[in-house]
Amino acid sequence: MCVDLSVVASVLGVGWIVVEYAVKIIAVGVVPEDRRPSSSSAWLLLILFVPIVGIPLFLMLGSPYINRRRARIQAQADELMHEGADDLPDVPRSLQTAPGFVSIAQLGRRLTALPMVTGDSHGVISDYKASIARMASLVDEAREYAHVEIYIMAWDSTTDVFFRALERAADRGVKVRVLFDHIGSRKYPGFHRLGKRLTTGGIDWHLMLPFIPWRGKTRRIDLRNHRKLLVVDGKKAMMGSQNMIDSSYLKKANVKVGRAWHDIMVELSGPIVAAVEAVFATDWYTECGESLGIRSYERDAYEPDVGGQTSAMQLVPSGPGFTTEPNLKVFSSLMYLAQNRLAIVSPYFVPDESLLAAVVTAAERGVAVELYVSEQADQFMVDYAQSSYYRSLLEAGVRIFLYPKPQVLHTKCLIVDDEYAVMGSSNLDMRSFGLNYEISLLTTGGDLVDDIAEVVVDYQRTSRELSLEEWEQRPYIRRYLESVMRLTSSLQ
């Protein structure tokens, strides 16, 4: 029997065209579902023009099924957020503030179940080693338990003081629980020994968002738990932007050029600690199924008035489990509240349409808007995607301050009218709004806002201001790469 190869080739060719167009037609109807327009456009362009790459990537990174599955698990854990909080007012009774801000606190509560309560700030720490030393000191004070949740963890010469404190705590009978992100931590030296060292030290630990297919642990590989927090005995807490790793991130190239990460952490006590603990309990339950319960909010017969060391504070957790994007909505609302000044510090500023509109609109209505970013971001794609927004920002009147390379400005904070502030782990990018589990602290009425503002003043002294004239002189190849990276940043 003789087979006409030309006929076979024609049939295969027609078959391929039919399949290709069928996939493209399906993609047009499936991809935009529950996805922001910029993300939909980016995915469709990739699928329609490069299907051999776009389709597998979408199945791995864009699958809504895995998001819904993670959301169901998160919804069960979120019930812990309500414990001890349902009978509290939306804001402390002694807080005197604008109605517009009260509505933002109410928004945060509706989205996360956490009210605004009082809390005492024991200072913002911007010295990298000093913050690690302080965390170690708090662990040394622990009598019942110490809960640690940090995105990147590495046991090195800088962090040894903290891990030794955890070991000492476990030795004296303190229950020590540790969470760290699997993908976020695995690329750093000592990762494969870290778990064994923690176990040997009597520390109970789990990976966050583990991706270990051969053990049946699969998920979207681009999800991260980006939170950084410590809770001791339900009475003291620390949170902020700093990971538990040397400030060089243990890379020889960074050490050679003197590159170091710059962060802030804050030490807290009072009722706000229960909210921080609720976030840890939620993530612990999500990863291992153990319900820890949550200590009730401390409610003395006399609640201290807001002012001085005591601030009004609200925790804003966010992540894929929260389908309403709490951090994006709270941040955007704060920007629209601004009347005089808006200062933004973020290592990764890649906003979506709504956040960009909030920033530009603030500048155009006369608010003094300042953006603090690294002169050169530590990630290639982010560096170009972020800088693709500089022209429109500068034209709107935003002042952009570049923290000098090779240093990396890793702090994430927001100051509005020197009355309201946010700090924590959340960047102002689409990853932090949709793919990363984050934790942010919204505050007003006490010293904490001033302490955060002082850090920003120091950043301004260290940075240089970028002008529109200078930016317009950049090479055309850079402009092209900015556009490409801006498009890829929308692939969620």
UniProtKB/TrEMBL annotation:
Residues 221-248, 405-432 form the PLD phosphodiesterase domain. GO terms for biological process: cardiolipin biosynthetic process. InterPro entries: Cardiolipin_synthase, CLS_N, PLD-like_dom, PLipase_D/transphosphatidylase. It is found in: Cell membrane. One of its GO terms (molecular function) is cardiolipin synthase activity. Keywords: Cell membrane, Lipid biosynthesis, Lipid metabolism, Membrane, Phospholipid biosynthesis, Phospholipid metabolism, Repeat, Transferase, Transmembrane, Transmembrane helix. The keyword Membrane applies. It is an enzyme of class 2 (transferase). One of its GO terms (cellular component) is plasma membrane. Pfam families: PLDc_2, PLDc_N. It is a multi-pass membrane protein. SMART domains: PLDc. Coiled coil: none annotated. The chain crosses the membrane at residues 6-31, 43-66. Its EC number is 2.7.8.-. Gene3D superfamilies: Endonuclease Chain A. It comes from the Bacteria. PANTHER family: CARDIOLIPIN SYNTHASE (PTHR21248), PHOSPHOLIPASE D (PTHR21248:SF22). This is Cardiolipin synthase. The lineage of its organism: Bacteria, Bacillati, Actinomycetota, Actinomycetes, Micrococcales. The gene is cls.
